[in-house]
Amino acid sequence: QVQLVESGGGLVQPGGSLRLSCAASGSISSINAMGWYRQAPGKERELVAAITGGGRINYADSVKGRFTISRDNAKNTVDLQMNNLKPEDTAVYYCNAKSFIIGIPSNYWGQGTQVTVSS
User: Fold this and answer.
1) Which of 1, 7, 18, 63 could make an S-S bridge to 67, C-beta 3.0–4.6 Å?
2) Is the pLDDT confidence value at 102 over 90?
3) Alpha-carbon distance 61 to 69, whole Å?
């Protein structure tokens, strides 16, 4: 079992910045990839950014050049630096971890943290 706790959300003006952090606990040795997803009201959950244990990174096209994901394997944390925020970035952001136990993949999710971009 893996537990994920997000922090760093809040209210910011357009063009501002926020840094989200996610801390993993539990069966952390089983974690392979970690990342961030977001979901706005009435919309599907979408991938924002993800990083594997080997360092491969994927970004959504809408955040490329503005967001940066980083991972500290020793601390079992993953951060998301969000710059030049836009109103359309407003959503609940969820930390995600993928684990592999005896060859069985599993997904784990944090409770989510609200990010609101508004003037």
Assistant:
1) 63
2) no
3) 14
Q: Could you tell me which of 15, 25, 19, 24 has the C-alpha nearest to residue 7?
A: 19
Q: Mean pLDDT, the chain, as a whole number?
A: 95
Residue among 104, 80, 102, 100 nearest 33 (CA):
100
d(C-alpha 34, C-alpha 98), whole Å: 6
**Tokens 């360092």 sit at which residue?**
55
Here the tokens at position 114 are: 């609200």
Structure tokens, 86? 């836009």
Whose tokens are 């924002």? That residue is 48
Per-residue pLDDT tens digits for 38-76: 999 999 999 999 999 888 999 999 999 999 999 998 889
Cβ atoms of residues 93 and 6 within 8 Å: yes
